[in-house]
Amino acid sequence: MAYRETEKMRQRKAQARQRIIDSAWACVASGGFRNARITRIAGLAGVATGTIYRHFESREDLFAEIFRTATQREVDKVAEALHGPADAAARLEAALRRFAERALRAPTMAWALIAEPVDPQLEEERLLYRRAYAELFETAIREGIEDGSFPDQDARLSSTCLVGAIAESLVGPLSPTLSGQATLANIDKKRLVDTLLAFCLQGLTGTRR
Q1: pLDDT band for position 180 (50/70/90)?
Q2: Cα gap 204→198, rounded to integer Å
Q3: Which of 43, 105, 190, 206 pairs with 29 at a CA distance of 20 to 30 A?
Q4: Nearest Cα to Cα of residue 163 among 207, 105, 113, 107
């Protein structure tokens, strides 16, 4: 008789997989991908190291899962801020502010998602999500052109410029090697975010907002 996996076994496997994901997430959030060791993840999850590789083909596959989940959460928050009754410029400003403020509240995870040197597989994921942000911003810019919030422009090119500007401007403050947590704590975060938003919106509108 062929072996048939029981529902109880499927549930146990699913629970083990989720514990592995949760433990990997905690490691990345506290020390980035570089410091997320498989042995530590296994210990936190309460499984053997080999069990991780029964759920994920490689360390890179596990980290790609964490990257996708974490980044999609941030993309969703930006998308949420882009919806509302205000004009497109105000909604875009709210979305950019949310992106920056959330990054500064969780600097280690934000650094891991935005700029930490990673394996090629994760770099591909990063490019996909930069594109997702750009597509959201492009839609908002097109709406702004229609409602008069923004002058006529290449919405696609402008959106990619926004993604580059906001991500690059946060690299220094978030970097554990360039600034460190102690330095980040001393940064005037409100001024940083306000300056970043003023730059982005001035680039879109041609005027200071």
Answers
A1: very low
A2: 10
A3: 190
A4: 113
**Residue 48: both structure tokens together:** 């053997």
The residue segments making up the domain with residue 50 are: 1-56
Alpha-carbon distance of 94 to 73, in angstroms, equals 17
Q: In this structure, what token pair is assigned to residue 9?
A: 């076994």
Whether residues 49 and 93 fall in one domain: no
What CATH code is carried by the domain that includes residue 23?
Answer: 1.10.10.60
| Cα–Cα distance, 73 to 115 (Å, whole number) | 17
Assess whether 91 and 176 both reside in one domain: yes
**0.85 cut: is pTM over it?**
yes
Decide: 129 and 76 in contact? Cβ < 8 Å: no
Residue pLDDT, tens place only, 34-57: 999 999 999 999 999 999 999 999
Give the number of domains in the chain. Answer: 2
Q: How far apart are CA 130 and CA 69, in angstroms?
A: 14
| Cα–Cα distance for residue pair 101/192, rounded to 1 Å | 10
